[in-house]
Amino acid sequence: MTKQEKLEKVHEKWLKKCKCQLKEEATQGVPGHGNPDSEIIFIGEAPGKEEDLQGKPFVGAAGKFLNEMLEDIKMKREDIYITNVVKYRPPNNRDPLPEEKESCVEWLEEEIKIINPKLIVFLGRHSLQNFFPNEKISEVHGKILKKKTKIGDTFLALYHPAAALYNGSMREVLIEDFKKLPRVLEKINSTK
């Protein structure tokens, strides 16, 4: 079975099995999407309005900005895999609650295990704190975090593209942090 087929089975299973309360109000679940052979997996917070309607992660304004940053480092959306901590849209784009994150965590972990990325990139504080609860995005953005976990050992924290859309100074920081991705991957590949 290919990684793509495994991912499809995982998404099919969790779309039925997930007990997330958000499922009741969301249009649909939004599983991860992208290249199953990617060296990088990006993890955001939760689907927004456009994602909820289209059933794919990062297709709204934040996704367009993410695509621009990928182009700046000579990558395309097809090169990466992208998902969210929570798979259903919180009402009015509010922050996901701890129990909502918890109800989707196994789904996320299964996605990550199949992709088996060399680098996990956290987009925003929610995905960072899901795995590094004591870290603050303002202190660790743009930095490599090393920690042996069941999902990986090399992480990079970035501000969420949506936050950067509304805050000009954060936008510049995110663009600069994002430019580190090719060097980080190169370093990982040279040591493995």
The CATH superfamily label reads Uracil-DNA glycosylase-like domain
Portion of residues in beta strands equals 5-15%
Query: What percent of the residues sit in helical stretches (DSSP H or I)?
Result: 40-55%
Q: Give helix and strand order, one letter per element, not per position.
A: HEEHHEHEHHEEHHH
Low-confidence stretches: none
Question: How many individual helices?
Answer: 9
Number of strands: 6
Write the CATH architecture name.
3-Layer(aba) Sandwich
Distance between the termini: 26 Å
Mass-distribution shape: globular
Number of domains: 1
Q: What does the largest sheet look like?
A: 6 strands, mixed
- CATH class, named Alpha Beta
Q: Rg to the nearest angstrom?
A: 15 Å
**CATH-derived topology:** Uracil-DNA Glycosylase, subunit E
Q: What descriptors fit this protein?
A:
192 residues, alpha/beta, Uracil-DNA Glycosylase, subunit E, six-stranded mixed sheet, 9 helices, 47% helix
Word description of this protein:
By secondary structure, the protein is an alpha/beta fold. The protein has a single domain (3-191), classed as Uracil-DNA Glycosylase, subunit E, CATH 3.40.470. Helix content is 47%, strand content 12%. It has a six-stranded mixed sheet, sandwiched between helices. Helix 1 runs antiparallel to helix 4 (98-115). The two termini are 26 Å apart. The mean pLDDT is 94. Its EC number is 3.2.2.27. InterPro entries: UDG_Type-4/5 (IPR051536), Ura-DNA_glyco_family4 (IPR005273), Uracil-DNA_glycosylase-like (IPR005122), Uracil-DNA_glycosylase-like_sf (IPR036895). Keywords: 4Fe-4S, DNA damage, DNA repair, Hydrolase, Iron, Iron-sulfur, Metal-binding.
